[in-house]
Design a protein that fits this description.
With 207 residues, the chain is an alpha+beta fold. 21% of the residues lie in helices and 34% in strands. The longest helix has 22 residues. It starts with a helix and ends with a helix. The protein binds calcium ion (2 copies).
């Protein structure tokens, strides 16, 4: 009985070590659910000074949040999402950014949902060594982006920047943004599983 118990403890410990790595979103308010009350156009949307939207910033522009269902667009996650091309216009590209505490040399997985408003849109996403321009064409459904970056600083800025339209106020919906420390490769997990199985086997052989 003692041997079975100790094997159980070993598996429990492995689960304990691996599970927090796999699940924690390092972003604050990644799904844009936490914002002031949406007051424009009957409550369907709102735009705010970035200091009022938890987690997110913007360079010289406000941040625009929509309620799920407004103008027929359901959120990809939860009840709200962002329109990168905010309101009103200031004459420079719209940005939406968040600074993340990172470990230099470690890799992180980025994912988010994006959707076009009019069908001919694009935006840039960057973080450390990641720099992608995304053509945003589907107005009928959300598309999931996933990518990876390796931190070069102790603070990494995740940044979305409007490309087309660059300065006009309509376009580029974003929701459900997530940055997680890179999880162990499936191969590593399989090897760990084999190791535990081997442990059980050798214990059985001894008994
Ligand atoms: Ca959301
Ligand atoms: Ca807008």
């Amino acid at each position: 009985m003692f041997k079975i118990k100790s094997l159980g403890a070993a598996i429990g410990l492995a689960t304990l070590i691996l599970s927090p790595v796999a699940s924690a979103n390092l972003l604050t308010n990644g799904s844009f659910e936490d914002s002031p009350e949406l007051t424009q156009a009957g409550g369907g949307w709102g735009f705010f000074n970035p200091t009022l939207v938890s987690g997110w910033g913007s360079e010289d522009n406000n941040i625009e949040i929509w309620n799920s269902g407004f103008n027929g667009v359901d959120a990809a996650d939860g009840k709200q999402f962002a329109e990168l091309n905010a309101h009103p216009e200031t004459g420079i590209a719209f940005t939406l950014f968040q600074d993340i505490v990172t470990t230099i040399g470690e890799s992180y997985n980025l994912s988010f949902a994006y959707r076009a408003r009019n069908g001919q849109e694009s935006f840039n996403v960057s973080a450390a060594d990641l720099d992608s321009q995304i053509q945003n064409t589907s107005t009928s459904e959300w598309t999931i982006y996933s990518g990876m970056f390796t931190a070069q600083e102790e603070l990494t800025r995740l940044m979305f920047t409007s490309v087309d339209p660059e300065t006009e106020t309509l376009g580029n919906f974003i929701d459900n943004v997530s940055v997680v420390a890179k999880v162990p490769e499936p191969g590593t997990l399989a090897l760990l599983g084999l190791g535990l199985a081997g442990l059980g086997l050798s214990r059985r052989r001894r008994s």
